[in-house]
Amino acid sequence: MKLRKLFSTVIVSLALICGASFQARAESAGEALTKASVLETIKKRGVMRVGISTFVPWAFRDKTGEFVGFEVDIAKKIAEDMGLDVEFVPTSFSGIIPALLAGKFDVIITGISIQTKRAMTINYSNPYAQSGQALTANKKLAEGFTTLADFNKPDVVISTRRGTVGAKTAKALFPKAEHRFFDEDIQAFQEVMNGKAHAFVALEPMPTLWALAHADVLFKPLGDQRLTNQLSGFAVRRGDPDILAFLNSWIHMRQADNWLNQRHKFWFGTNEWYELLEVPPVQ
C-alpha cells in the first residue's frame, strides 16, 4: 500500500513538473514571438517604415519633392492613428517583395494586387482598395451607348495598348468588335479623341482622368462600372499574426467611417490633385 502511494506521488509530481516545464516553454515562445513581432518593433522604434513604388496617383513626388498620393495618405493615417512617424522607402516595383523579405521596411503599401503566387511568399491584409480596367468612349460615336452589349458589335472599334490586361479584357468582352492595338496608351487614347475609335480600355484611373480632362469629347457610358476588379492589400512578411491583425483592424475601422472611400474618390475620381504636379498626368 505504501509503495502504491509512493508511486502515485511520484507520478503526480512528474506530471506537475512536466506541466510547469511545458507552460514555461510556451510562455518563453510567446515572449519570443512578441519580441520578434513587426508591430512591437515599430512601436519601440517609433517609426513605421513603408515600402512604396512611384505610380501616379498611388504614390509620387509633388512640386516640392514630398511624397503624396493615395497610398501616401493611407500610410500617414496609419502612423497617425498609431501615434508614430512614417518613413517611406521608395523601391522599384519589381524588387519590392524581395526588399520586404530582406527587412528593408515593415510593410508594403503601394497598391499591390492580391495574387495567389505572391501569397505563397508574403501575407496580404484584407483588401482595402480596388481598381481595374475601365472604358471611356467618344461622345459622338458612342451616343446612346449604355451597356457592354452596345460595344460588342462588328461596326464598333475598340482601341487598347498592345499586350496589356486592357487589351485582353476588351477582346474577351467585345469579341464581335474591331480591335486596334497600339504601343502606348496615349496612342489608343488619341484614336478615340480623333473619332477613329468608339472607345478605349485601360487601367483606372486613366480612363476617368482622360474623360475629366476632355469632357467635351469623351464620356464614361458605363458610369463607375469597371470591366474587371483588382483588389489591393497591404503586404507583410509571413509568420507575424500581430501586424496582420492590426492592419486588418485598421482597414475595418477606416472602411466603416468611410475615410478610405473618400480618399479613393479624391485620388481616382477627381483631378483636384493636379495642382501638386508641375505637369499634369493627363492633358
Describe the structure.
A 5-stranded mixed beta sheet has the order 10-9-11-8-12. Strands 4-1-5 form a 3-stranded parallel beta sheet. Strands 2-3 form a two-stranded antiparallel ribbon. Helix content is 43%, strand content 18%. It has 2 domains: 39-130 and 230-276, Periplasmic binding protein-like II (D-Maltodextrin-Binding Protein, domain 2, 3-Layer(aba) Sandwich); 133-219, Periplasmic binding protein-like II (D-Maltodextrin-Binding Protein, domain 2, 3-Layer(aba) Sandwich). Strand 2 and strand 3 (67-68) form a beta hairpin. The chain contains 11 helices and 14 strands. Mean pLDDT is 88; it is low at 14-34.
What is the topology, as strand order, of the major beta sheet?
10-9-11-8-12
- Alpha carbon gap, first and last residue: 97 Å
> What structural class should be given to the helix and strand makeup?
alpha/beta
CATH homologous superfamily assignment of the largest domain: Periplasmic binding protein-like II
CATH topology label of the largest domain: D-Maltodextrin-Binding Protein, domain 2
Give the second-level CATH assignment, the architecture of the largest domain. Answer: 3-Layer(aba) Sandwich
Number of strands: 14
Helix content: 40-55%
Backbone shape: elongated
Helix count from the secondary structure assignment: 11
Low-pLDDT ranges? 14-34
Q: What is the CATH class of the largest domain?
A: Alpha Beta
- How much β-strand is present in the residues? 15-25%
The chain-level mean pLDDT equals 88
Order of helices and strands: HHEEEHEHEHEEEHEHEHEHEEEHH
Q: Provide the domain count.
A: 2
- Report the C-alpha radius of gyration, rounded: 26 Å
Largest sheet report: 5 strands, mixed
